[in-house]
Amino acid sequence: xxxxxLEHDQVPGIETYEVxxxxxxxxxxxxxxxxxxxxxxxxxxxxxxxxxxxxxxxPTGMKWSFLAKPEGVPRHLLCNADESxxxxxxxxxxxxxxxxxxxxxxxxxxxxxxxxxxxxxxRGEYMWVLDILEKAVAEAYDNGWLGKNILxxxxxxxxxVCPGGGAYICGEETAxxxxxxxxxxxxxxxxxxPAVAGLWGRPTVVNNVESIAAVVPIVNDGxxxxxxxxxxxxxxxxxxSACGNLExxxxxxxxxxxxVEEFIYGDDYCRGIAKGKKLKACVxxxxxxxxxxxxxxxxxxxxxxxxxxxxxLAEGGFESGSMLGSGGFIxxxxxxxxxxxTWNFARFYAHESCGQCSPCREGTGWMEKxxxxxxxxxxxxxxxxxxADINKKIEGNTICPLGDAAAWPVAAAIRHFRDEFExxxxxxxxAQKRNYGLISEKTASA
Amino acid sequence: MVKVTIDxxxxxxxxxxxxxxxxxxxxxxxxxxxxxYYSKLPGTGGKCRTCLVEVVQGSxxxxxxxxxxxxxxxxxxxxxxxxxxxxxERVQKNRAGVVEFxxxxxxxxxxxxxQAGECHLQDLGFENGGAGTRYEEERRTFAPRxxxxxxxxxxxxxxxxxxxxxxxxxxxxxxxxxxxNRGEHAEISTYIENAIENDFSGNMIDVCPVGALTDKTFRFxxxxxxxxxxxxxxxxxxxxxxxxxxxxxDEIYRVTARKDAYGEVEEQDGxxxxxxxxxxxxxxxxxxxxxxxxxxxxxxxxxxxGHYLSPRQHDQKKIK
Amino acid sequence: xxxxxPVDMSLRHSEKPQxxxxxxxxxxxxxxxxxxxxxxxxxxxILHIAEEEFGGWLSIETMDYVAEILEIQPIEVYExxxxxxxxxxxxxxKYVFEVCRTGPCMLVGSDQLIEHIxxxxxxxxxxxxxxxxxxxxxxxxxxxxxxxxxxxxxxxYHEHLTPEKVDQLIEAYRSGNxxxxx
Lengths: 446, 320, 182
What we know:
The complex is a heterotrimer of chains A (446), B (320) and C (182). Chain A is of the alpha/beta class and 446 residues long.
């Protein structure tokens, strides 16, 4: 089991510059700035097969290669530390524990992209993590890793940390840019893409914390070495933040390709369902990905072992699969009510919709209200079909992916747990009294 | 020039033209509706999603269809692009969905709304909406807010097209209103009691596609279809002085800018024909104006129906 | 449901706020992180500082003052302050408990925790205790999903909460011990 990012997370004092440096920190900056051209770094990232760790899984090297480089126009690297997808708390762990790893990644990546001013945009609620990062940034300046002419290479870099103000939508890269410009976090229309016109209209790359951190081992050991880990197009390691009804929730660095079975039940990972209960369902990639009923969690519909990879988790498409997403792994035990949870997620998305485009503004609120009624025993059978239909009218019709993110969990819950929704209609009184602990017929017979 | 096909009609347009504007060059039935886009206000568009179209062929070079429906107001045409609007069932279905979204929280107080008869949401609902509603929840309401003695803000009717915000940004020297809060609670507001007063603020009324911003000097005075619109001009040192006066008998009931088939202000002397607040609110005397002649309202609203055609006459007119 | 956009005088401070020299230096340091002409980018962070400095909430005067510093229109500040959930637009208690209520926390008992705190403080969600000490709010996902149920108070996250731990926490805050660990 190899750990590339969290290798030293248990070393006392690893958050300080001295200890981090002693553990081999900032080697990637030395290597890149002294021995490699920016193109060389890009080449290694491409070879590594690294895919965006924020959720979309877009190849990082390809994203970098799209960056426009018009003469005389500054470009920027922005780190997306607006971690807000329910179930996801991996970036926070990394930044809290090993802040210098992110800063090192920012320097090496900024060098590759030719950015001389870079920003880390961190969600405002993580204000104490911002303090940790700013302290580390100051240490990096003091030791000559930031500022003018770093290591005598002629490369200059200023790095700043900026807080958000509380808005899930700012994790969407164009909303993040708007927010960084001091505006409401309304996602922009695309095109133009940030790679052409991003922050203040300048070419911009936005990468997730974990993606930027992964550049460090990729440069140190080479992209090929990184790509040796994993299965197929899911290379390297991935931080998974496990939560819900697990015996041992927390952040784990896994090698891509371990089985879901091992991740949930293995001694090195979550050690099974809490309190000896049974697995009912799992949302493997953050709240916006489709929920899987227990019989599709560890095995695919065709009976193959489900692996922790982008491809395997998506196996079966929306019918019987889900997504790796951001790695927010949420587990439900047998006592959990799917309707209540679906309502809860719908409420989250309604709360976080920016309100800019009509399908999302109106649709998320509508779904929340219908689900609220259903959960509290006030719904009708036709509400279930209504939900499925509202879903279809939102999906794909919005400015940004929040619409899809709000639609998918509802669609999947109805697809796999329709009986529970119907139960809430047929058992009105009981549904009103019983807020949690509903056992699905499917689980009971399993 | 690039060639684009929209609902089987071919046209050549300047590179960089959007699908919507290409469709408007063709004109007629195939033009997608637009509730937020306003060609005279750069930066508008993309929000209401009513102008969604299906791109069945991306371009000559890359003929692959675009998987998602595209907003025609913000998607530029490519050479050889093939677009379906009226002829796409998928578009009709999804547009009906968008219209439903726009209507679920709309008060439907058309009988007492000054915008009735020239409301784009009415037209949109008429053309694309369902007969009933599936919305059983309580409609959203906002606390009333006074924004001065000339413009009435009725937030419950607003569809958040952002046009008025762009008017304030682009036509006035100080913006005091904007969009506050977020999600379904987002609203047009000044936050503090603040009158929107500026020589050109009245244009917010003309760009509003619904009855959210109406003329206080015309409030509840008459239904628009009882009035006779006339092109009129005056000498004004603030604006072009070219407007439409809406008369009943010898009286001017209200003054608006001259608008085209899509509800946008027409160009006057090569510029967008915004009118100033003096012309709009204060010149209500016939002697202020030189009447040029009757104004043809080029819309399929009741105003342009030659006053009260029966439904059958209406249909016959269509067939011709 | 009606809008909560406030207009009444309770949203105002009686005096014009003014940053201390030290805070103003910090504000200027933040503004300097952005290129000339892009100073508005500092808005969100300055609002955080202003909120902390001027009573834990953003009055109209505070927002107007921030607009003045950044040379932008006040409406640009109102638009931003009302968009982001962290900003309080009216007065709160001395300590604001924001309990995460989103899925993963709910799975491990956030509903019950919120109920417990409400009973303990004798207030409903959104209310402030009579002595002005505590305000109870709910929050959407705070990124502590594996450590729930949890609440945020100021900059601090209090995680792995139980009714007993919350009781202790309330006592600790009451007695002025804000460095309590949890």
